[in-house]
Amino acid sequence: MSPTPPAIIYNRWPKENNITGIKFPVEKLLYLKQNKYDNQPKGGSGQMTPYTLKKNRSQLLIIDVQERLLPAIYDNMSIVRNIKLLLKAAQVLSIPTKYTEQYPKGLGPTVSNILELLPTETPRFEKIHFSCCDEGNFKDFLGQEGKQVVLAGIETHICILATAMDLLNDGYQVVIAIEGVGSRRKEHHLAALNVLSQCGAMLLPTESIIYQWLSKSGTFEFKEMLPFFKE
What we know:
Elements: E1 7-12, E2 26-32, E3 58-63, H1 76-92, E4 97-102, H2 104-107, H3 112-115, E5 124-127, H4 138-142, E6 148-154, H5 156-169, E7 173-182, H6 186-198, E8 202-204, H7 206-214, H8 220-229
Parallel strand pairs: 3-4, 3-6, 4-5, 6-7, 7-8
Antiparallel strand pairs: 1-2
């Protein structure tokens, strides 16, 4: 009989988060740290060992940036700009990119200014669950292309949060592009980032993600991306 995996229950007011700048009660949040997640390296304190993003270990997942969702999202044009920057970098660096749509029959397709940057063969995943991982064939869709998954899209406190938590529990290294995710209400977005940072996701600015992928200056890829950083 397999032992019951231990869990950490956060039921307290954490100190003010340095990234989000707010306090948030993480009440009865059950976060399983065992099973597949347990095969990731940990430091002596129980924290995840720091790591950097590598382009040959990464994939980019764009979640639910759809016509009937995006207009209500706080600071939505900034989110789109950052997603477009991530998509450009992924294309230049040949990083696998995929995208999801939540109930597109009711919420519409991905917005056109994102779709136009996606090659026609870009894998698309249709879902009704808020966590992508709860759809039966999502793991096959995600494949074995990279255990470092960079997430962008909407909404931070719903589909991004649920998907990231499940990916962490399945042993992935999850990176949230903090300028490329959002919610209808700013406080919901910040609260979700707070929870994610406590549970093992790495929260990074878009430029940090891309510069880690690039690794060094002077390359063709770096020169190709440089003009986009100046926009």
